[in-house]
Amino acid sequence: MKKWLFLIACAIAGVHAANAQQWAPIDKSPLDQVYFPIDYPSLKVKGTKEPLRMRVIYSRPNKSNRQIFGSEIVPYGKVWRLGANEATELDLFTDAKIGGKKVPAGRYTLYALVNEKNWTFIINKETDTWGAFKYDAAKDVCRVTVPVERMDKPIESLTIDLEKAGTGVNLVAGWDTVSATLPFLF
Q: Which among 61, 91, 68 is positioned nearest to 162, based on CA atoms?
């Protein structure tokens, strides 16, 4: 009897293993998001009164001992998705002033035109797009050119942070040994 129970258990385990879900491999550039106020979902649970201003959703590629800027990864003078995979998404939950221009609350794509000494951040109406392959300048809401800052210590993974700055927020994008800051006023 024990032998038969063992064989039945093995058969059930075999059928289960054969029907097991085949999961996709982990992406090399994982998806991440950042909120302002920082850690907003946690603050919301705790009863914060501060309104949600913005969120950025992006994929975080790694440097992996590669030259990043001015290479085929992020060429100078060409529009970049500001991340990997899908183009970076910017959600504004309230109207904002960006580069002196009023931008209404809404969902946008955030691109960057990278050069050695400056980056031009581009807020674009087209959403849900892969990379910058179908970028259309006619759908730009605004463009803001900012200087590049050099860093002593390289950042391995592209990182986008939101930091309070007076009555606004600075979006800081950094990777390798450079960073650029885009100010938002609310």
A: 91
